[in-house]
Sequence to fold (294 residues):
Amino acid sequence: TEVDWDRLAAEHEDFNQRFNVLRTEPDSPLRSWGSSEWATFHREMQTAALSQFLHGEQGALACTGLITATVPWIDAKYYAATQVMDEARHVEVFARYLQEKTDGAYPINPALDSLLRSIIADGRWDVTYLGMQIMVEGLALAAFGFLHMLTSEPLLKQLLRYVMSDEARHVAFGVLSLQEFYAGLTQAELRDRQEFAYEAATRLRQRFMGDDVFERLGANPTHVHAFLDRHDDPANKTFQMMLFAKIVPNCKKLGLLDAGDGWLRDRFTDLGIIQFEDWADTTQEQDAFDLAIG
Fold:
């Protein structure tokens, strides 16, 4: 079926409210853009977001294959093997959507690329779980939910619905798998995991900033972000913080927030995301994602 891109552009404007200051301030580097350029921007930002979903799923496919080989428990190996099939299906469906419904995928975001390489290079099974199941897929689950709520495009809505159901199960299994293991780690070992989670969080904040879109449309991303840094838009802060609505309670469930001297709590406070600590973790809300989403 054909996609009504004009309608999707209008819907995706809500997803891009964090950039509204670029339209309203007289010193904006995009002050020359009119309604046509902004409509193109919203369409391209949707394609860019879906592209990052695709690249995250490609990373998840590689990581779950690694987990299958390295996790020490046979039941966890069985589960990881089923997740490999899930991730392969997700890669295929996002790739097909981008190929058939858009002008093609954007390349992987450098921050996501760097994080995925760090996760894979580390080699420890629990860090692969932490990096992929808790951090990367936790943030993706929040972003999937946001886009699922906004879009009325039937195919995309159904696609996201099925992927969210799988991902919630993956994240919940990651939490349950790590919770008992982390209870037996030393303070030094926990600090190492805390530092990894914080570094992952700082990189993931850059995942949906749209540098490639600005560049494709003739804008200088450096100038755009310098302008955004000078104009403290509450919508941008809210969007960035909401992406961590799944990560923070899951880290608390794992005992990482307050391990030792509460090092990770302090860092998440500095990032402005600690307020999500008492939101439901994914093990509590997994059933809500189980294809009951409209």
